[in-house]
Amino acid sequence: MKLIENWFSERYSDNLQLSFRVSDQLLSIKTDYQRIDLFDTYDFGKLLAIDGTVQLTERDEFIYHELITMVPYHLTPKPPENALIIGGGDGGAAKRLLDLGLKHIVNVEIDDQVVEVSRRFFPSLSSAFSDARVKLLIQDGIKYVKNTSEKFDLIIIDSTDPEGPAEGLFSKEFYMDTRRIMNDGAVIVSQSGSPFYQPKAIKLAYSGMKGVFNDVRVYTGFIPTYPSGFWSFTVASPWPMKQRPVTTSGKYFNADVMEGSFRLPQFVKELIT
Ligand code: SAM
Hints:
By secondary structure, the protein is of the alpha/beta class. It is built from 9 helices and 12 strands.
């Protein structure tokens, strides 16, 4: 008889946590920026946690990665050809953009250990970094955006929550710097947390972008392993965003999701007014 069971729990508060029964802990390291843990879970396959918060699991990563790429992809005036990803060290966002046919992607991740872990444990995502169309830079995205002379059709902020190294990625100053490196018609998107448990993230992203861009919108989706399962993204452009026809679908994304994900519950509307 097995007496001990192992669980990984993400603590949402002193009184609430989500627990995954795990068959193994494959890695636990402390990097210069954060703690990285890798678990093999029974229900969600491999799970990557940073500082105790779930970043992705094998089973549901497609939802987050489709939402953060395919929605903004359809809001540029013509299909974007190049993109900047800040964060995204697992490679999932870059992989989806390659699938969408982008020709040039710069992916700026601050922590090389996230990339290494993904290369070992999520090869189908990190394979994007071996593609000639993807340039991976290990540096702080805030500094990159301040200093680069490259311009982009699409900017994706695929970061951790607004604490530690990611805090500045939710500031008005950072969004002002991104404005400078946008091609005509460009769109920026940021993951903006759980509207239910983390109103701080959505409020920071929305108010910061409102101070810089003319058209700012929030959309949401269902991601079972993130707090509350209900997640938000904030998308913006200096130009009015007009949706191009949706001719492609993913495993989560389709034409209905493109429209429906912008229909917000009242409590979310109230967070951003
Ligand atoms: N899907 C995830 C989520 O919302 O939980 C995000 C995944 S991705 C692993 C987040 C990445 O953002 C981390 O690897 C982290 O190192 C990176 N990151 C945080 N702050 C950053 C910064 N200032 N510049 C570049 N990358 C940053």
